[in-house]
């Protein structure tokens, strides 16, 4: 209600729409959040935070083509925005455009090689493409950067199992479950 009043009182203030969009996003009201980010951008089309959040909402709503277009606009505005590349890569992965996803994750990693999530997500592309050695390398790099990354332990365990390395696979899968007891181990 407070943010509704703020938008009513200041309809030309992009920050009011942005803040209400954040609130809607936290409430899982993605369409409303998207509408507010669009309204914010109409008032200030250079707001990278609003453009990023708009693209994230589009991806959440599985409107991947629109999300990719928004993330592309974001990286065109700021070619150093590694999150724009990483998030666009995730959309491309969801659309099974593995080559596009690999290109985006590699760009993100060139800009920020310390981002464990980009290593993990690129590993997921390699895993989906059955490029197991490349997947294992990327998951290992993610774990080097973040030893508590449970999903990276799990996925590396899956890769190692597929590669016939059952002992190390079991160690990785056990570590994943120790870090996150909500992880359901694959039946391997």
Topology:
Blueprint: H1 2-9, H2 14-26, H3 30-43, H4 48-60, H5 64-77, H6 82-94, H7 98-111, H8 116-128, H9 132-145, H10 150-162, H11 166-179
Helix pairs in contact: 1-2, 2-3, 3-4, 4-5, 5-6, 6-7, 6-8, 7-8, 8-9, 9-10, 10-11
Structure notes:
There is one protein chain. The chain has 188 residues and is an all-alpha fold. The protein has 11 helices and no strands. It has helices spanning 2-9, 14-26, 30-43, 48-60, 64-77, 82-94, 98-111, 116-128, 132-145, 150-162, 166-179. The radius of gyration is 19 Å and the shape is elongated.
- Percent of residues in helices comes to over 70%
Shape: elongated
What series of H and E elements makes up the topology? HHHHHHHHHHH
**Gyration radius, rounded:** 19 Å
Strand content: under 5%
- First-to-last CA distance: 50 Å
- Biggest sheet, open or closed, and with what strands and sense? none
Residue windows where pLDDT falls under 50 for at least 5 positions:
none
Q: Count of helical segments?
A: 11
- The whole-number mean of residue pLDDT values reads 94
- The secondary-structure class comes to mainly alpha
β-strand number: 0
């Amino acid at each position: 209600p407070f943010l509704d009043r703020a938008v009513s009182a200041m309809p030309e203030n992009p920050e009011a729409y942005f803040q209400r969009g954040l609130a809607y996003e936290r409430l899982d009201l993605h369409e409303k959040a998207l509408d507010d980010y669009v309204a914010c951008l109409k008032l200030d089309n250079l707001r990278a935070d609003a453009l990023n959040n708009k693209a994230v909402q589009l991806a959440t709503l599985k409107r991947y083509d629109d999300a990719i277009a928004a993330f592309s606009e974001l990286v065109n505005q700021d070619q150093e925005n590694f999150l724009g590349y990483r998030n666009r890569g995730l959309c491309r992965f969801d659309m099974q455009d593995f080559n596009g996803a690999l290109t985006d994750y590699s760009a993100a990693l060139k800009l920020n090689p310390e981002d464990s999530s980009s290593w993990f997500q690129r590993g997921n592309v390699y895993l989906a493409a059955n490029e197991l050695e490349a997947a294992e390398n990327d998951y290992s790099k993610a774990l080097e950067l973040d030893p508590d990354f449970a999903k990276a332990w799990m996925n590396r365990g899956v890769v190692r199992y597929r590669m016939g390395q059952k002992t190390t696979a079991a160690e990785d899968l056990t570590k994943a479950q120790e870090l996150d007891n909500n992880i359901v181990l694959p039946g391997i």
